[in-house]
Design a protein that fits this description.
Blueprint lengths: L3 E4 L2 E4 L2 E2 L6 E2 L11 H13 L20
Antiparallel strand pairs: 1-2, 3-4
Amino acid sequence: SVIFGFSDNELKILIMEYHNTKLFALPGGFVRKDENLDDAVERGLKERTGLGNIYLEQFHTFGSKARFQ
């Protein structure tokens, strides 16, 4: 997931530190076998950032629950 924002007329992108390793990455996570990609993104963002009920847009990504069948 990529979180875009603006501050002082500058584009900002949220990155997070990975488990206190001084390595940084975009917020993300695993998709459970029983959930759709949209649900996984919403869950992951809520768990990692506390953000909920935000505008999300998906670009060229596919991930139905049937992907493992």
